[in-house]
């Protein structure tokens, strides 16, 4: 692999940048990290002419002229075509999954519908933030495989199962049938930038994080905030 080959990595979370700095930028080639949509412009991408653009965690629509003219690789936390769409971690956990696949996909116009370069096993144990960090580290290893061997992506096969992106209001804790499912509900939302699991009661909002399950009991930290009345 030529040392002059350029790659771009896009990611919005603190753990994306940390893994990029600790691991990815030390791979052969020239590397650039982008963390917001205003930096991902056609002009800037054209200036660098990257071999690949890797998307670790990205919430914005990528301009069509970029993914059509450059090989854009996104990492999706589902065994596609099962689990295309939004909030894959939360949608997997509420369905009872403890394990999934991390899929490296070629980006196309239809969300998560592109051909697959690689799939690797991914555990869904721990808090959401722990899972996201694990995912980013696995993505880094997959990036090394991609730049080393440049595999051709293979079209997805099978009937798609589409996940719907969750809304903040869905973080309110619903009626659940066990301590284990409550533990799962809290942990799947426990990450930087995500609305914590919560309940509202008698003028206060209770937000739960750092949960542990022990002997059919859920232990968690809670932040209690007065609910402000609309003016």
What structural keywords apply?
231 residues, Rossmann fold, Methionyl-tRNA Fmet Formyltransferase, Chain A, domain 2, 2 domains, 6 helices
Description:
The protein is an alpha/beta fold. It has two domains: 6-163, Rossmann fold (3-Layer(aba) Sandwich); 168-226, Methionyl-tRNA Fmet Formyltransferase, Chain A, domain 2 (Roll). It contains six helices and eleven strands. A six-stranded mixed sheet has the order 2-1-3-4-6-7. Strands 9-10-11 form a three-stranded antiparallel sheet. A two-stranded parallel sheet has the order 5-8. α1 crosses α5 (128-149). The protein is elongated and about 60 Å long. The N and C termini lie far apart (61 Å).
